[in-house]
Write a structure and sequence with these properties.
The complex is a heterodimer of chains A (114) and B (112). Chain A has no helices and 11 strands. Chain A is mainly beta and 114 residues long. Chain B has no helices and 11 strands. In chain B, strand 7 and strand 8 form a beta hairpin. In chain B, strands 2, 4, 5, 9, 10 and 11 form a 6-stranded mixed sheet that branches. Chain B has a 5-stranded antiparallel sheet with strand order 1-3-8-7-6, with no helix packed on it. With 112 residues, chain B is an all-beta fold. Classes of the chains: A mainly beta (114), B mainly beta (112). Chains A and B meet through strand 5, strand 9 and strand 10 of A and strand 4, strand 5 and strand 10 of B.
Chain lengths: 114, 112
């Protein structure tokens, strides 16, 4: 158990809908990352938050947004969903930058868009 | 061309064999190199972490980085059926930003 908690574990929704994925980082970790894993694209970095502020942005679509709350949990919002958004979405967390590059991944949220 | 290339396999070897997994990359700014193991339908877990060129050993696992060739390897000695998983290499430029770029992953099966 990595200590990173993601909900829901599985989600099936229709095209055009909006969903919210939630993540609780490991206790004490200030950074939260979101990654998308699909069969054709592999594991891709979407966005990073550090202590509530956006720190880095990757290949995140404009239809997707994220935020990190004062209690450090994070949400990834996916809107106007398309079939191609079906993927496994991982949240990960890490401590302060001085503690190294150890990033701990959650179990993921399986999103199926039908 | 992808920044990180990794042979997706699948790779199947007998128990006890030495396994070699490799990645090549094109971005010379990468300084931090990692190997993750991912079991089916689970999150990736960090196996090895290396900064810059050199070797690092941890039990049955050895990671090698050759920045001059832009090539990294993971060796697994005395492979066990429990090592069957997908292995992903990952790299980043900056320790602070920690934006990881992953390879496609190699699916490995160790046959008893």
């Amino acid at each position: 158990d990595s200590g990173v908690t993601q909900t829901p574990k599985h989600l099936i929704t229709a095209t055009g809908q909006r969903v919210t994925l939630r993540c609780s980082p490991r206790s004490g970790d200030l950074s939260v990352y979101w990654y998308q894993q699909s069969l054709d694209q592999g594991l891709q970095f979407l966005i990073q938050y550090y202590n509530g502020e956006e720190r880095a942005k990757g290949n995140i679509l404009e239809r997707f947004s994220a935020q990190q709350f004062p209690d450090l949990h994070s949400e990834l919002n996916l809107s106007s969903l398309e079939l191609g958004d079906s993927a496994l979405y991982f949240c990960a967390s890490s401590g302060r930058p001085s503690s190294g590059n150890t990033i701990y991944f959650g179990e993921g949220s399986w999103l199926t868009v039908v | 061309q992808k920044e990180v290339e990794q042979d997706p396999g699948p790779l199947s070897v007998p128990e006890g064999a030495i396994v070699s997994l490799n990645c090549t990359y094109s971005n010379s700014a990468f300084q931090y190199f990692m190997w993750y193991r991912q079991y089916s339908r689970k999150g990736p877990e960090l196996l090895m972490y290396t900064y810059s060129s050199g070797n690092k050993e941890d039990g049955r696992f050895t990671a090698q980085v050759d920045k001059s060739s832009k090539y990294i390897s993971l060796f697994i000695r005395d492979s066990q059926p429990s090592d069957s998983a997908t292995y992903l290499c990952a790299m980043s430029e900056d320790q602070g930003a920690q934006k990881l770029v992953f390879g496609q992953g190699t699916r490995l099966t160790i046959n008893p």
